[in-house]
Amino acid sequence: MHSPIQNKTTAPRRNDRALLTGTGFSRRQFLRGTLAGGLGLALGPHLWVRAAQPTYAQGTVFHDRTGDGRRRPGDPGLAGVAVSNGREVALTDEQGRWRLAVDDDATSFFVIKPRGWRTRLSAHNLPRGYYHHQPAGSPQQLYPGIAPTGPLPESIDFGLTPQAESDRFKAIICGDPQPRNAVEVGYLAQTVVPELRGTDAAFGVSLGDIAFDNLHTLEPLSEAFGLIGIPWHNVLGNHDLNFDAPDNRHANETFRRVFGPTWYAFNHGPVHFIVLNNIEWLGSDPQQPQASGNYRGGLGTRQLEFVAQDLKHVPAAQLVVVFLHIPLHRGFDPIPRGLTRDRQELYRLLENRPRTLSFSAHTHWHGHRFIGAEDGWGGAQPHHHLITGTLCGSWFGGAPDERGIPHATMSDGTPRGYLELHFDDQRYSMAGYKSLGRPWEYQMHIDLPPEIPLAQVTQTALTVNVFNGSERSTVRWRCGSGDTWRPLQKVEAADPRFVRLRERDQNLQPPYRGLPQPMANCLHLWRGSLPENLPAGTHLLEVIAEDMFGNTHRGSQPIRVVA
């Protein structure tokens, strides 16, 4: 068990050699590195003006003994804690003081939570380790943004409270909640909150599309998820934007008001986490003022500079986990808004590290991707990227259950649900995929007719969808306890069970909706043929699936062969 205090009032330094003058590194060094990297073409004039007439914010990071975020006499400063303005990263000095540039009239400052400490939480368990400096506030938009903050404070102080953080912990990782309205907020509250309340996870993460264009849902959903009882992080998604913003500059105002900065970092236990915003709003269309599709995937130079500066203070051997909304992998969506256009620049920052992992959502299907040389990744080993299944499933499509909540099976046949990510020092694992409302043991579905004519046995395909399976999984089956285990072949095809569900649910009456088109190449599907010598009678078909982490999952289904 790690002690957060270690009998002293200063946190361990993350980098004893880092400069504590000004921004933590000289502006001349920053400009030289920025221009050499090609960023000066886009940002050079702005940076030179700021260099000539810099404006700085300053403050302290302190041991918040009361936990309310207010510094009182006797609350000591904490040395070696990282603070950022979203581009630069500075480490606090011996008294806990920091100093950073104010880049423009909408700069967010935030503390990078060190191991063994926590920031203040809102009443609904949202992290509050940030300060928005936005003197004039947000522009007038359909959904309210940040109120005017007025002049720059003399001191922006961040309080941290000690907490025990073991080398072993877990986190809840969820894809898009994406409710359209209060009814769908209710669907999430009724299904997600009772299942996760009381979890021993250290924190939860929703990977974007917290809303479905209706930003009035952000706060009631956060109130509901706050009942789970753990800190909850939220990634920006393309449906969380202010669509009436003329450009990307003010497209995140409502999200920032509710949740804080759209990119930042934090530590928990021995792991470093980075939350990124890879949504770039291209401006509203006067002909379609509420259109939500005018975006592309990208990080931008300022955010990439933040990642570069942040990682300078993270040991090379430390596990780094990245959260974003649009997937990194190149293969799933050919249109520009379905790709992170500058992912190669992110790869350059990560690929020399031996331990990296990333999560996205956005697609409303679930799958593991291993990013290698064919995608420009230069690391010694492929980068593991997981496109995570969603809490809303297929946007709450499909027939309702007895409570009136749609089953919302996703287009690859995966039920709506989430992941439990386990950490043990620098290792990570996940025991499977958790389907909402189902027992943990439900890790697959087996697709076979319940009754098969004897003459059609050899023409009947056995299909198994292992929800958290990947190319690194093995799946075997047998029919009867005396049978031998046979391997199933991994295929990329549509899940036949989902195809039938979609056909069944296509004529639902409002307020219910049909299901989307089936995914043509489900990433976790296995197939085989029944043996030709299978006699008439009732048999128990069993399946064993072993995943990349060594977990073994079992499924079974009775089948009847009739003469």
Structure in words:
- With 563 residues, the protein is of the alpha+beta class.
- The chain has three domains: 135 residues, Sandwich (Immunoglobulin-like); 245 residues, 4-Layer Sandwich (Purple Acid Phosphatase, chain A, domain 2), CATH 3.60.21.10; 119 residues, Immunoglobulins (Immunoglobulin-like, Sandwich).
- It contains eight helices and 30 strands.
- Strands 12-13-16-17-19-18 form a six-stranded mixed sheet, with helices on one face. The protein has a five-stranded mixed sheet with strand order 11-10-9-20-21, with no helix packed on it. The protein has a five-stranded mixed sheet with strand order 23-30-29-25-26, with no helix packed on it.
- The longest helix has 15 residues.
- The N and C termini lie far apart (63 Å).
- 45% of the residues are buried.
- The N terminus is likely disordered.
